[in-house]
Amino acid sequence: MSFHLKGLCLTSLLAFMPLTYAGFSSSSSSNVAVYWGQNSYGQGTGSLAQQRLSYYCANTAIDIIPLAFLTTIVDPSANFANAGDNCTAVSGSNLFSCPQLEEDIATCQTTYGKSILLSVGGATYTEGGFTSSDAAVAAASNIWDIFGPSTSSNVTRPFGTSVIDGFDFDFESSVQNMVPFANQLRSLMTASSSSTGKQYILTAAPQCPYPDAADGSMLAGAVSFDAIFVQFYNNYCGVQSYTVGSSTQNNFNFATWDNWAKTISLNPDVKILLGIPGNTGAGAGYESGTTLAAVVAYAKSFSSFGGVMIWDMSQVYSNTGFLDGVTSDLSAPASTTVGTTLTTSTTKLMTTATTTTGSATPTNTSLVSEWNQCGGQGWTGGTQCVVPYVCTAQSIWYSMCE
């Protein structure tokens, strides 16, 4: 991901209604999340330049908008590209005051029913996490004071009185002591929910190779996530590797993530969103049309499937018809040609198999080309690479010709 009733006053009625999730639904397979904040399409002016947040919230196709990014955590700072032009620097802080975002977040939540998350990390994040568990817990408490429902007068609050609906982790490199950081945020959100009724969500955006290098420790049954926005792009396991009509997917590994959701995730109801680029320049492996429709239909047949994540808003809005296509794909039936997942009860190692074979013994002896899968737990495809490439283990689940 780069650096998108008659006779009764309605207002009175709403005041007595219980607060619920805004936008994101844990029971839905058609959630749409689109990142906003980085203006990655690169237009400085005009209709294709990044617009204010509320402009996009009016789009009924979108449910979740992660704001990208909080770029440092220990000494918090944020970068929202050209949206920052409407913010004001605060003396003694790396943060800023942004009344427009304060207004727009409230509008997005109350008028349009969106879930607004703060995405932490991004490609420029270089802190590497925290030096200790205590430092991680302290940082999480500070971030909660800044962006949660805090009344503290000792912190700079970029979004003023507005309160986000949760946090998203988008770390692109190895980080330390993230489990205590994530669990402290989760604990603070849970405590707030029990007292106010407002529900919060915690998500992460790992890259598709499993286990993810950055989020591995959090995803190893240590943190309860509500949804995972898997980046199925910029990698060999992206949507471009999907084989249309085949129940055996050699590289595209949604089945692996579905199995993670069922056997390892601390939250057994976690949703996996199919992360895709919103345009040709948004990430390697862009797909659209009938190919993307086939991928969505395949992924939709897994019970953990929760919808689609797209990078990013500016790319989507420069790609006419793309978002309409995604929503249409999500409303279509699931594929009947689908791989199933198997697990070992003692070790919870992740394996995949098809509906027609339950054996982990390789059945394909054809030579494998460069960058393609040639082995791993449960692999049934070719294991010999074309000359001069060598089958090299990346993890217990995946080996690749390189």
UniProtKB/TrEMBL annotation:
Pfam entry (one): Glyco_hydro_18
Q: Name one GO biological process term.
A: chitin catabolic process
CC per GO annotation: extracellular region
Matches recorded under CDD domains: GH18_hevamine_XipI_class_III
Q: Where is the CBM1 domain?
A: 366-402
Q: Which UniProt keywords apply?
A: Carbohydrate metabolism, Chitin degradation, Chitin-binding, Glycosidase, Hydrolase, Polysaccharide degradation, Signal
> What SMART domains does its record include?
fCBD
Q: Where is the GH18 domain?
A: 30-333
List, in alphabetical order, the Gene Ontology terms for molecular function in this entry: cellulose binding; chitin binding; endochitinase activity
Region forming the signal peptide: 1-22
E.C. numbers: 3.2.1.14
Q: Which reaction does it catalyse?
A: Random endo-hydrolysis of N-acetyl-beta-D-glucosaminide (1->4)-beta-linkages in chitin and chitodextrins
Xref: InterPro entries: CBD, CBD_sf, Cts1-like, GH, Glyco_hydro18_cat, Glyco_hydro_18_chit_AS, Glycosyl_Hydrlase18_Chitinase
Similarity section: Belongs to the glycosyl hydrolase 18 family. Chitinase class III subfamily.
Please report the name of this protein according to its UniProt entry.
Answer: chitinase
